[in-house]
Amino acid sequence: MTTFRLAATELRRLTSGKLPKLALLAVTLVPLLYGAMYIYANWDPYGKLDSVPAAVVIDDTGAEVDDGQPLNAGQDVYDELLDSGTFSWTRTDLQHAQTGVANGDYTFALVVPRDFSDALVSPADFEPRQAKLQLITNDANNYLVGTIADKLAGEVREGVASNAGSTAAEQFLLGFSTVHDKTVEAANGAGELADGAGQLRDGLGQAEQGGTELSDGAHQLLSGQRQLASGANRLADGTGQLHTGLQQLQSSTAKLPDQTAKLADGAEEVAQGNEQLAQKANVVGDLSQGIVDDLDQTKAKTAAQLRQAGVDEATVQKIVTGLDDLGRPATDANTELRTQVGQLNALADGARQVADGNRALANATPQLTSGIRQLTSGAGQVDDGAVQLRDGEQQALSGTSRLADGADQLVGGTRQLHAGSGQLVDGSNTLATELGKGAGDIPNPDDTTRQTTADTIGDPVAVDTQAQVKADTYGAGLAPYFMGLALWVGGFVLFLLMRPMSNRALAAGVAPWRVALGGWLPAALIGFVQAVLLFSVVVLVIGVHPAHQWRTLGFLILTSFAFTAVVHSLNAAFGPKGKFIALVVLVLQLVTAGGTFPWQTIPEPLHPLHQVLPLGYVVTGLRHLIYGGTEGSVVQAVAVLLCYLVASLLLTTVSAWRQRVWTPTRLKPELSL
C-alpha cells in the first residue's frame, strides 16, 4: 500500500457523505474565517476613532500676553481637536463629562482648566507654573481607547507647548533685536562718553591746577585767618579795656558839668579882672611910650641945635650918646613896660578865651557826659561784638583749617581723578570699540527669520520617519500574526476529523514512513487549500498588498505544511492527549510570538519559548515578506519551519513504528476525543 493510496483512502473517507463533506469544508474554511475576519475587523481602527464619543471641557478664561494681545489657549485646543478628526467630540461642562465617562456615554474626557492660558504666560512674570490638561478615563469603557487618549493628550500638550515655545522664542528673539539696537546705541554713547571723558580729563587738569591754587590760597587764608584771629583776640581784649576805661571815665566825669560851670564862672571873673588890668597897663604903657618918644625928639632937637651951634659932629655924637645913656633906663623901662602890657593884653585875651572856652566847656560838658555814657554803652556792644568776632574768628580759623585740609584732599583727589579720567578715556574708547564689535555678534533677524527661528526653537525636534518597511494599516500590521495563528488553528481543527494514521496500514505492516506520510498528506493538501484561500482573501478582498506576493504565498503554504505536520505528529505520538498538547502549544505561541507587542516585552521566563516555538519565526518571516524586509530573517524562518516539518514527520514515523504493536491501551483508550 503506497503513501498516496493511504492519503486518497483518508480523503475518500472524509468525503463519503454529505455531512462529512460539509465538515471538511468547514474545517477548511476555519483559517480563512479566523485570519481574514480578524484582519478585516482590525483593519483600520484608528481611522474609525471619529465615531468614538469623547467629551471636552473648556473652562479656560484666557489671558493677556505682554504685547496686550489676548490668548485663548483653551479655545485653540478645542479648535485643534475638531480639526484633527479624532474622536467624536462633545463640548460640555466638567460635571456632565465626569458623569458621562462613568456611565459610558463618553469613552474619556479632556478638561482644559480655568488657568490654562494664564499658566502659559506665567513665565513672562518670572512666576512660572505648568499649564495642566486633565484627562478623565475609565478602563471599563475600553482600555485601549484610554491608552489612545493618553497619547492624544500628549500630542495636544506638545502642540500647545510648541505654540507657547514659539511665542516665547519670538519674544526672546525680538529681545535680541532690541538688545542689538540698544548695544549700537550704547556703542555710540560710549563714543560720546569717550569724547566727554577727554573733555573731563582736560577739565580735571584745569581743576587740578585750580585746586592747587585753591590749596595755596587756603593756606594763605589760613595764615591770614590766624593773624586775624590773633587780632580779634587783641581787639576783644582792647575793647574790654576800652569799655572798662569808659565806665571809669563815665564815673569820673559824672560831676564834670557842675565843676566846669563853676570853672567857667571863675574864668569869667579872672578874664574881667585881667581885662581891667590890661586897660590900666595900656594907659601906663602909652604914657611910658610917650616919654620915650619925647626923649627921642628931645635928643634929635638937641643934636640939631648943637650942629646949628656949630658943635662938631663928634661932640654931637658924644652928646647924643650921653643922652642915650641918660634915657636908657627910661627906654628899658618902657620896653619892659610894653612887654608887660603886651603880656597883660595877651593874658586878658587868654583869660577871655579861657573864660569863653570854659563857658563853652561848661555848656558842652552835659553833652560830653551824655556822649560818654552813650560811648560806654556802645563800647559794651563793641566789646560784645569783639567777643563774638573773636569766637567767630576761632570758628572761621577752624573752618579755614578744614578748608585747607579739604583743598589739599581736593588736589589729591583731583590728581587721581585726572589720572583716572585718562583711564576712563581709554576704557570708553575700548568700550565703544568692543560694543561696536559685540553689536555685530548679537543676532538681529528680520521678521521672517525671527518667525522661522521661533518656530524651530518652539518645536526643535521634528521626527523624519524613514521607514525601511511599513505596514499601511493597523490590520496590515497584525496580518502576519493573525495569518500564522489561523494556519495553526486550521491544522488543529483538521485532526478533529482526520485520523493521524491508518490502523489498517499499521496492521498490514506498511512501512512506518509510508504510514506517516500517508496520514500527513491529506492534512497537507487541505492545509495547502487553507493557505491559498487565506492569502487570496487577505490580498484580493481585504487589501493587504505583500511586497513579495508569490514568496508570501509559498511561505504560507510551507507554514501550513509545517503546522499540520506538528499537529499530526502530536496526535500520532500522544493520541487523544496530542490534541490537548496542540491546544497548549497554541496558547503558548499566542503569548510568546510577539505578534502585537515586541516579544522582548513578555516576562523573561517566557523568552526561551519564543526562541523555540515556530509561530514567532512565522510572524517575523511574514512581516519581512509582506512589508519588504531583509532576506536573512525569511531564510531563518524557512529553515526553522523545514526543521519542524522534518522533525514532525520523523516523530510521526517513529510513532507509526511503535504502533505496529497493539496494546490494551490502544484497543481501549482511557480518553477518546
TrEMBL record:
The chain crosses the membrane at residues 22-41, 478-498, 519-544, 550-568, 580-599, 634-657. Keywords: Membrane, Transmembrane, Transmembrane helix. One of its GO terms (cellular component) is membrane. Its main location: membrane. Residues 465-652 form the ABC-2 type transporter transmembrane domain. Pfam families: ABC2_membrane_3. Residues 434-455 are annotated as: Disordered. It is a multi-pass membrane protein. GO terms for molecular function: ABC-type transporter activity. SUPFAM superfamilies: Methyl-accepting chemotaxis protein (MCP) signaling domain (SSF58104). InterPro entries: ABC2_TM (IPR013525), Phage_infect_YhgE_C (IPR017501), Phage_infect_YhgE_N (IPR017500), T7SS_ABC-Transporter (IPR051328), xxxLxxG_rpt (IPR023908). It is found in: Membrane. This is YhgE/Pip domain-containing protein. It comes from Saccharopolyspora aridisoli.
